[in-house]
Amino acid sequence: MIKSRWVFLKRPDNLTEKQGSKLAELLKHNLKTVKSYLLKEEFQLFWAYASPYWVELFLDDWCAKTMRSKIEPMKKVARMLRNHRRLLLNWFWAERRFSSGVVEGFNNKAKLTTRKA
Fold this sequence. Notes:
This protein is mostly helical.
C-alpha cells in the first residue's frame, strides 16, 4: 500500500506499465481501499449513458450498492449524489443540448462591471 495513492487516483488507461502491475497486485486483496477504487471506477460508467432512463437506474443501483459498502467516505458521496440527483439527471434530460455560452457571457459582463467600478 505504500506509495500507491496515485495508482488508485489515476484512470486505468493513464497508468504506466509499472503502475498497472502494481494496481493488479493491489486488486487481489480485499481491502476497503480496493473496494472504494472499484466503486469509483464503476461510477465512471455514469457519464457513458445517453438515455436518462438508464442513467436513473444506474445511479439508484450505484448509490444503493455504495450505501451497503460500509465505507463511510463513499457513503457520504452516495448521499451527496442522492441529494443532487435531480440536477444530475437534468443534464441527461436536456440531452446535452444547452451550452454554457449564456452563463459565460453573463460572467464576462459581471467581470467587466466589476472592473469599471
